Amino acid sequence: MIKYVSTRGGIPPVTFDEAVLQGFAADGGLFVPESIPMVTPEQFISWVDLDYPDLAFELLSLFIDRSIIPANDLKQLLDNSYKSFEHPDVIGFVPLGDEGRTYIMELFHGPTLSFKDVAMGFLINILDYLLQQRKEHLSIVLATTGDTGPAAAWASAGKETIDCWPLYPRGMISEEQERQMTTLNAANVHPVGVENCADGGDDLDFVVAKLFSDEELKKRLNLSSVNSINWCRVMVQAVHYFYGYYRVVDKIGDEIIFSVPSGAFGNLFGGYLARSMGLPVNTFICANNVNQALHTAFSEGVFAKKDLVQTLSSAIDIVVPYNFWRFLYFSSGSDGEKIRSWMDEFKQNGKVELDPQILATAQKGFTSISISDARTSETIREVFHGNDGYLLDPHSAVAVAAANALKDRLPEKLKIVCLATAHPAKFPEITRACLDSGADLPEQGKHASLERASKVCQHLRLCDLENLEFALIDAMTEAPD
Questions:
Q1: What are phi and psi of 441, to 5 degrees?
Q2: What angle do helix axes 266-277 and 239-248 make, rounded to 10 degrees?
Q3: 361 is a domain residue
Q4: Number of domains in the chain
Q5: pLDDT of res. 202
Q6: How far apart are CA 211 and CA 144, in angstroms?
Q7: Which end of the chain is more exposed for a tag (fewer CB within 10 A), N or C?
């Protein structure tokens, strides 16, 4: 049976269900498998024509023991997770105009128009499945910089086993993203708009981590989380890399390049996981905006926290990419003691310098770049006018801009897949400004669900960051509204 350990090495191994239900490990680390399972060459070839749910079943079966979730139950959970997606194939692919070398992988066809739906719906369904078996209830607390909160709220709505508490920095996400959480009208979903978050979602992550570090409080309130700190989230995000590979390469066995807009490193860790399992990825492009903690780590070997800069690509405005610890854990040879010392040093000093040998291991197959808002805007405009009105959201534009900037340094004949992580309709003001379109939006910049959400009542709690910990404990201790 595959077991899961903490990146800090401070707890005994646990089973998949325990790792998912706990969210954070009790020692403050993140759960990872004791070893990453490998896909055999025969499996890799046999999966080439599978649809998305069936491919997910094969890959996730390598991480989930049948004694925890039987095969038929896992298939049903996956089918339920993707049946509401608008695209018949779950994920869409669009070539960009450079002789078939570059593709957009559209991950935003789920109910909240974000790539977070691809993993979140499944994670929430898994939690609900396990909680029903145990006759237990959880309060899910998560911080969001735009897309995770809506995805968690929609997936949780109406689940009797779950109360969902999405926290977001008020005024630092788009109104469309906010309303996706606050107009749900589900009795078990409690959005909290938090004021005075100088470091945006990182301020909220700190409060969430503090709640989870108090084991007695965690048990009393039945706390868990579905941010990409939860192993299930990043595990599922490995699937779309395999799926993208099968849909784009000319010949099975060819190498490929992925450009990934990167904030907390969860999506990119899913890619690393896929490559570690055997996917032939030549290079991952880690595409940062000017909050470039990851670019600095890859290029200079310094993992450091800097002041947050608000950008057009707000969902990746992250100054502490917490999933990077998972990546460093494996880059260090699964050295929990090293990760524990680094995490403690980072907490005290706000930065760590990576050992040269570990940095060299981490850099293999990765390149990185920081993309300015000006370049993001130019990319949205250039793609729209050069590709028959195809509209990028500002996060997807970061990935495309990064691929364009680095293209000459990458192997010439390899396909490049840019991950499109959100529907452009979630960012109408940015679209108008980039296209100089005034009040008019192109059709790609609209979506019926967002039009409706703009007209109905909002339900939310408001809180100042200074009081957030107390306020959450007080609210969760009360009977739900």
A1: -115, 140
A2: 70
A3: yes
A4: 1
A5: 85
A6: 16
A7: N
Active site residue 218: no
Q: Taking each helix axis as running N to C, give the angle between helix 52-60 and helix 71-82, from 0 to 180 degrees, rounded to the nearest 10.
A: 140
Query: Kind and range of the H or E element at 165?
Result: strand 162-169
**Six-digit token string for 382:** 């250039």
The one-letter amino acid code at 205 reads D
Query: Closest Cα to residue 142, out of 183, 72, 85, 190?
Result: 190
Query: Residue 37, Cβ neighbours under 10 Å: how many?
Result: 14
Question: Cα separation of 369 and 408, whole Å?
Answer: 14
Judge whether 423 lies within some domain.
Answer: yes
Q: How confident is the model at residue 481 (pLDDT cuts 50, 70, 90)?
A: very low
For residue 366, list its beta bridge partners: 284
Distance, first Cα to last Cα, the chain: 41
Q: Which residues pair with 194 in a beta bridge?
A: 169, 463
Identify whether 281 is part of a domain: yes
Active-site residue, selected from the candidate residues 75, 116, 210, 455: 116
pLDDT number for residue 342: 97
Identify whether the C-beta of residue 154 lies closer than 8 Å to the C-beta of residue 111: yes
Mean pLDDT, residues 350-376 taken together: 97
> Position 431: which residue type?
T
For residues 355 and 187, what is the distance between their CA atoms, to the nearest angstrom? 49
In this structure, of 179-193, 221-235, 277-291, 367-381, the range with the lowest mean pLDDT score is: 221-235
Range of the domain at 429: 92-114+233-445
Quote the pLDDT of residue 3.
96
Question: Is 23 contained in some domain?
Answer: no
The b/e string for 70-99 (b: 16+ C-beta within 10 A; e otherwise) is: eeeebbebbeebbeebeeeebbbbeebeee
Structure tokens at 428: 């109408």
Show the tokens assigned to 32: 């990872």
Could you tell me which residues come within 8 angstroms of residue 410 by beta carbon, excluding any fewer than 6 positions away? 257, 282, 283, 367, 416
CATH number, domain with residue 366: 3.40.50.1100
Q: How wide is the angle at C-alpha 262 spanned by C-alphas 61 and 89, nearest 5°?
A: 45
Q: Tokens at residue 43, please?
A: 């499996």
Give residue-wise pLDDT tens across range 89-136: 999 999 997 677 999 999 999 999 999 999 999 999 999 999 999 999
Q: Is 440 in a helix, a strand, or coil? A: coil
